[in-house]
Amino acid sequence: MQGILSTLLFLAAILNIVLGTGFLVNPENAGADFGLAVTGLHGSSTLRGDMTSFFYVSAAFMALGARRRSATLLAPALALYSVTFVGRAINLVLQGPYEGWYVTMGVEALLVGLMLAAIRSWRSAPSSI
Q1: Taking the CA of residue 61 as centre, how many other CA atoms within 13 Å lie in the half-sphere pointing to its CB?
Q2: Could you point out which of 62, 77, 119, 127 has its C-alpha 20 to 30 Å from the C-alpha of 9?
Q3: Which residues are listed as membrane-spanning (predicted)?
Q4: Which residue in 34, 21, 49, 52 sits closest to 99, CA to CA?
Q5: pLDDT tens per residue across span 97-128
Q6: Which of 112, 102, 111, 119 is nearest to 11 (CA)?
């Protein structure tokens, strides 16, 4: 089970690298896929910097956490995706649903669940000492 969870986390890390690279290389198109419109150089700079860092940092900690089977290393990615999910939930309550809201929240919930399952699995595994 631990191997499966680690593999799934590596795959999620690859997805994050692909998404982050999209924002790094072409923030206008990547932003449009997320419902964001660039209105100038400041906007493209913000998307390129902020969104790339979100996805790259998430990818790095997912991959490192999976490689070492470390809950501590997985914590930053878990925090990023948990806060993102809560922010979307608040928006859903305050402003209502938008087209495709369940897809983005579903992916984030899946990633949070995957990370929590991995942490639980790693903590309950017998010690190798």
Answers
A1: 19
A2: 127
A3: 51-66, 73-94, 100-119
A4: 34
A5: 999 999 999 999 999 999 999 999 998 766 44
A6: 111
